Amino acid sequence: MFLQAACLFKGRIFQLEIRAGRPLMNNYDFSEQTAVITGGCNGIGAAVVKKLVHSGARACIWDMNIQDCEDEIAKLPKDTCQKVQTDVSDFESVTAALAKTKSAFGAVDVLINSAGVAGPTYSLADYPIEQWRKVQAVNLDGTFHCCKVVVPEMLGSGYGRIVNIASVAGKEGNPNASAYSASKAGVIALTKSLGKELAGSDIAVNCITPAAAQTRIFDQISQEFIDYMLSKIPRGRFVTVDEIANLIAWVASKENSFTTGAAFDISGGRATF
Length: 273
Known about the structure:
single chain; alpha/beta; 3-stranded antiparallel sheet
């Protein structure tokens, strides 16, 4: 449940959001912008969809499971939110998703790469080859595929914001999660490379490196590993998807007009760099 209001300050209109039992939140202005959010039906992606739509954006969700969305996402009207069944690990599927998005909403202004899988927890020596390849295909190749199709569109319009969801595991590495850690380290490096490539334009490419959040990805890992991740967070709790979405909203906004190629930490004090 949320209420929205607008206030005028120094000649600018700011959207404010009030959620039951929670503090007042600022919404950045995404009016007249089209945002693609991969993995947007649930978890972090869904929180970002809601945040951006409530801030005026038209959202297009690229997700494998568009029939299995959170209730709030499923109820969003089609003139503000479209869903395209997409396998981000398949370049042809991503290319088709872009065509459908442009047909519905026009050019893409914002890309949030949130689709991801954790993969099983094994030591590297025991890690199944096919599972390793699947984690890389979704987490790293998927991010590459989506950036590859969207960047030319942004260059054509002269504007864009890309936010890739990496992980603190990509900085530090988690034991028995080498596939996931390696894929997220790759996302960080991809972000820095692409950010430098596009730094001469008004296209910002950044990533965030969150600690674990309680999402469906927990269904893929053991309770022992969940307990391990919690023990590494000085805050003593998992980050919430809304906290992550609030950070992403600024990184993806016009207000972020200078920073590019950066990794924004949201690990509750865990990260050391």
